[in-house]
Specification:
Helix content: over 70%
Order of helices and strands: HHHHHHHHHHHH
Number of strands: 0
Mean pLDDT: 93
Radius of gyration: 18 Å
Shape: globular
Number of helices: 12
Largest sheet: none
Length: about 190
């Protein structure tokens, strides 16, 4: 049975392992669920605060992201892998800071790599969605940006490519098991 093909959250599992060992898996799961939505909202608040410089608008933006109908529905369904999405607004925050020139390329690459690895180990589906919409945002940003900003948007391509390359190397053991062994879709017969 290949666990790489199953929905899992290895990063959250490792972080919650002390709680799992002392209080049990149900308490660890419930704690992660209860902490995930405020963490998502707080990270979205950080992004909104940076972009708007307005506390109340940022508070509303963080609330809408962290406690949206989607996250509350996933929370109610017990889909922890779908509500641990805090790296998404943080990745946008890093990109906005890099475009504004408030972060070096090396620091941007290192921090984005950490966020990509974290999101990969929290949810493959969200990682793939982040990648797809990030590429779309870069395409639209380079297409519609004013001439003075177009170069800064395109300058993100190199550090983002480095970040993805390093992240894929770091998660390569997981990817090996994901691609090397087939998904078993037939029932187990004892």
């Amino acid at each position: 049975f290949n666990l790489a093909w199953q929905t899992s959250i290895p990063l959250a599992s490792v972080l919650a392992s002390p709680l799992t060992l002392t209080l049990g898996p149900v308490m660890a799961f419930n704690t992660l669920c209860l902490l995930s939505l405020p963490l998502d909202a707080w990270c979205a608040y950080i992004l909104c605060r940076y972009l708007t410089q307005h506390h109340w608008a940022s508070l509303l933006g963080g609330y809408i992201f962290g406690f949206s109908a989607f996250t509350l529905c996933q929370f109610g369904g017990g889909h922890l892998h779908m509500i641990l999405v805090f790296p998404v607004p943080l990745a946008v925050y890093l990109a906005a800071r890099r475009i504004a020139g408030k972060m070096t390329e090396r620091r941007f690459t290192a921090l984005l790599t950490l966020l990509l690895v974290a999101q990969f180990l929290l949810s493959l589906e969200t990682f793939a969605t982040l990648t797809m919409f990030g590429a779309l945002a870069l395409l639209l940003g380079s297409s519609f940006a004013p001439p003075h900003a177009k170069g800064r948007v395109l300058a993100l391509l190199k550090p983002i490519a480095y970040s993805y390359g390093i992240a894929l190397v770091l998660v390569s053991p997981y990817l090996y098991y994901f691609f090397a062994f087939d998904f078993r879709n037939s029932p187990f017969i004892a």
